[in-house]
Please model this.
Amino acid sequence: MNKIYKLLPLLLGLISTQVYSAGCAGSDGNCARPDSYILTMTKLELCTGVTNTSPYDVTCNGATTVGTGSLVFDVTSVTAGQMIATFASTTGLPIGTTFTHVRPTMLREIKLKGSVPVSGSGFSTFTCHTDSTATLNGGNKYQRLLAGKTSGTPTLGTYYLVTDSGSQTRNGVSYVSQNAANLMKMCTNKACTSTYDWTNYNKDVPTSDTRFGISIEDVTNADDDFSMLFALQAPYTVSEVAPKINLAFGTSMSLSADTANGTSCAISPYYVKSEITITD
Model:
């Protein structure tokens, strides 16, 4: 099966040849607002420019680190932006330097809670809930989509940003992942004793709205974190005053669900909209 997974917010449509599910594009697709979407940020950098030669290019020119550590925050919380602003120290930035982009680095482990209505041709709409008891059955956590549950209520579970396989397309150009031979599996039951194979599954960042990010790192199964690039709402030139970093998040479509048979489902994170500004 072929799928284009537009994330995490961390995201757009689904190209599917053998499956009934659909990815998220604007207000369409199998996505919904989560009750919880918990990330861990380990680093935040400001960039003076980017090359952005491909959807995987996260090169940050003139990188200046403004925050390191382990900041755990819930994107759905009204205090998320304030927490990140506290995490980032802007004292001592070089006066006269103009920054245009931000590069956050985050763990691939994401905690999710919520429910998604799943619909498609050939089956009745049903609801997929996050399930804290779903397991990987010994599989690689970066090569599995954990199963959701179709009854009961959602519970806070631990999910992972999976490793890409195959290729993605931006503006008519195909970009092949370094993990092109990687095979991603979707667990079709809680114990993951039954799976569905994806031969082309990738985290193509939506190009229709830069608030989803402009690129995402092409990580391997050996990587426990990943980086993304976001454009500032406007370039900022450092003055004598230590600036403030302001962040706002939109999560209306950031929980995704898929189905291979119209009866079972799998849960994964979708992209979160981020508006980032720097002001005096």
